[in-house]
Amino acid sequence: MKTRILLVRHGATVLTQEDRFAGATDVLLSDEGAEQAAALRDRLASTTLAAVYCSPMKRTVKTATIIAEPHNLELIKVDGIREIDHGHWEEKKREEVEKEFPDEYISWEADPFTYAPDGGESGLQVLSRALPPIREIVEKHPGQTVLVVSHKATIRLIIGSFLGFDLRRYRDNLDQKPCCLNVLDFTVAKPIKARLSLFNDVSHYKTNQESDPVTTHLSKIWTDEEEEEAAKE
Question: What is the DSSP string of 24-67?
Fold first, then answer.
């Protein structure tokens, strides 16, 4: 007996292209994000869903509402799977944070799993509130498929934890595009085990959305490398 979770990141927001820290900031889904959610809705329309769970933030609620349209299911909001809080970095661009809080930024870059900016959360703190509800969902839906709509950092931490990754590198080693689909199968018998069968998939994007919805990652390693490659072209 297994539980299948379709773990989805919300669609693009009005701040997605600005490379800002907007974890706890309750930003709205953009028109592009709504189109991405509609594309995933169409992809999952024939999938039998037992329930739809989402973070209570506006961008996840809207994404989940769009995807759930064909299924006639009420959203179940789960506070534990909301996005990481960046404290006094919220709404600032990365270069602003590097300039205003250089020591904090260096510490966070070195280990975002255990370090948190002033007033914010570490990855460990996010995981401690996100894992319990995920386990509850698994146990509540044996033999069923459910949709869970959450956020970039939260999803990477959840997946990394169940797969046994070194979570000090979760930002550099795992990516999540807006409205991507991840498929995780969980054993219901304890101890709960997980198998990842689909990761960061956006094959539902329509042709006119193939402009790479995420070219910024808030991870300096990949952003710098991409800029260097672009300069060579």
Answer: SS-PPBPHHHHHHHHHHHHHHTTS--SEEEE-SSHHHHHHHHHH
In eight-state DSSP terms, residue 69 is: G
Q: Are strands 181-187 and 194-201 parallel, antiparallel or unpaired?
A: antiparallel
Taking CB atoms within 8 Å and a gap of at least 24, the contacts of 45-52 are 45/70, 47/6, 47/145, 48/145, 49/6, 49/73, 49/145, 49/146, 49/147, 50/141, 50/144, 50/145, 50/146, 51/76, 51/137, 51/140, 51/141, 51/144, 51/146, 51/147, 52/76, 52/146, 52/147, 52/149
Cut 0.85: pTM above it:
yes
pLDDT digits (tens, 9 = 90+) for 116-147: 999 999 999 999 999 999 999 999 999 999 99
Among 47-56, 145-154, 200-209, the minimum mean pLDDT is found in 200-209
What's the sign of the alpha-carbon dihedral 129, 134, 137, 142?
Answer: negative
Radius of gyration of the chain (CA): 17
pLDDT at 221 over 60: no
List residues with catalytic annotation: 10, 151
Beta-bridge mates of residue 13: 29
